[in-house]
Amino acid sequence: LDLQQVGAGGGEETENITVHAVPFEEIDVWLQAARDRGCLLDARIYAGLYFITQHLQKNG
Question: Could you write out the three-class secondary structure of 13-45?
Answer without folding.
Answer: CCCCCCCCCCCHHHHHHHHHHHHHCCCCCCHHH
